[in-house]
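RETRY 2/3 - previous attempt timed out on the joint model. Re-submitting the same 715-residue input unchanged.
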Amino acid sequence: MSKISIFLCNCFGEIGKIIDLESIRKKLETDPAVDSVTIVESLCLPGDAARAHSVIRERGMGKVLIGACSPYGNMEYVRLALAKEGTNVRTVRMVDLREGCAWVHGKNPQGATRKAASQLDMELALLQNMQNSKDVAIQVQQEALVIGAGPAGLSAAAGLARLGFRTHLIDRGSAPGGLLNVVTKTYPADEPGPQKIKSFVDETNKNSLIRFYGKTKVSAVKGYAGDFKVSLAGPEGNTVLRVGAVVLATGARLLFPQGMFGYGKVKNVITQMEMERRFATSAASCKTAVFIQCVGARNGERPYCSTICCPLSLKNAMRVMDENPGAKAYVLHRDIMTPGSVLEAYYRKALQRGVQFIRFDADRPPEVRGQDQVSGVEVFDTISGVSRTLETDLLVLSTPFIPDPDATALARMLNIPVDKYGFYAEVYPIHPVETRNDGIFICGTARWPVSSDQAIAQGEAAAMKAASFLGKETVSALTMSRVPGGKLGHATADAAACTGCGNCVAVCPYEACRLQRTGNRSVSRVIKIRCKACGSCVSVCPNGAMQMPEQNYRVTGEMIRRAFREVR
Amino acid sequence: MSAERGNVKILVFACRWCGLIGADGAGRKRIELPASYRVIPVDCAGYVEPDAVIRALASGATGVAVLGCHVGGCRFNDANHPALKRLELLKTLLDTAGIGGNRLLLGFGTAHESHQYAEMIVDFHEELKGLPSMASWLPAAAVTGDQ
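RETRY 2/3 succeeded.
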């Protein structure tokens, strides 16, 4: 067993003035497992890591225990600096003597010293009993799959191809474009929808690295980050792709307001999408148009804001006034949501143009007048406090984005979580467009309602994240982590002890545990690339077959035993 | 035996993502806490097996605290949810066995809830003050705690 070098940091007195480091040093030196104990003034200043490493090298490159500030703050960088010098990063352990000891027990120096000694003793037990996980490396398939060819998917595919990665772009429609194909004018630049994504579509057609699969769906996904095997079902039959990363840009659809405000019964009560189609065929003539906002949104069932409907109504209201001289446009809203400089300016433009805004209360929604054909809308204006009846021949309902009905099935196939509404959930908040399943990235309205501009930006972001992952030739299980310096280790299954109960399979949040048939029994196997080292499988294994080598049962047992024993 | 009473020893299994970051915050705010607890850092509350809790009680701890992220806010997707169920069941078992479910504290907080962390430690310390250690039959040298 290699010997342990201990460094105790004084932190310029922050630790030393409360905890008696000298007495701890004397006690620790009597431990046969300890090679040397060095008290240092600081460990985090430039040059400190090199000095510490020279001590470690002098003593024969053993394991290292550091008693200093919290390992979750600055010490992570000390650990990485030591690793850079050549120390094995996984055999460097840290004990929190400052935040967790000196600073919370400042009025009790004796108690703090005893606690510090215990904590160091416990961590020694860990270092003595820990084993190292065997690393597994896999070859990264340097191709990407982008699901969905709307603005987000197109920009993701174009971004990946521009960086030189072979990209497969699939869509269930026959042509790329998504919802933007329907839109003849987009806000705020008033350019046609297809124009907005023209550069990406051109890239898709011209760039030989992108292959577009129309009318194609994903039927099955196997494998893990770096090596997914995706089965596609399309007009050319089944195709199996091997890709390193998957970008999900499946988009969303707009809520169908059946039964709301007379939709489906009363003529000329239409949705925003039908309005777009009327504009496309120049059949949008009317004397007055009334837009109702937040139809089926920002309520108990769907408390979120769909982001696009307010600017959409502003655009369409102005367009009605432009195309029908003398026409009036009313927007009945609960709040006008136009964040940012560009959209707020767009709102001011609509105000100047003469679009009338009437605020209503969610508890007192507008009422539609008219039996077969809409004749008017009665609305209680909360600002003036009076009920107003607006005569109109067109009523447009602004409905929110809702998740695609296929999204949940796809999420299950790819083992990524969805939020409570059904949109794909990212690793909130510090890893945007990443999902909990490595190698799978999300962007566009599949992730959250966004405008096409934002969807394009998110597509680029997802492409960059995917590219930074695909750029590696090989990845190893221990470095597959969002933590700097890699993960602690990964679970290992002892085939001899395993009875195949399947507890680990049920509890694993990453689907890293699998039951594999060997001979006449089933044995658990860990897919190391997927494992994130949470240890859930360890705690449910009735036979101790599942272990984390770095913090195995011997480590935990010994740490518990040493927690309150008299410190030597 | 009587000397054992009030000699609180708490073993804390704290998750590295929420519980321990909260503990760091408590340190930075210099909140004074009783020095009666020892911490075993774990990567996730899901790692804490029921036997570890029982073993800790058997080897001299007056109480065991398991601190993880909020349910629904787990770093490992939903790993702390089954852990909560498992340990709540253990609480019931401890009550049934006459050991007392109050010796096991399940705390769920986020990384920035350092006041909540401090409050939990102080309250748990107060709660356990009157209780003897489960290992009070062990030789006195084997069990020493701090106040």
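The CA atoms of residues 18 and 111 of chain B lie 4 Å apart. Closing ticket.
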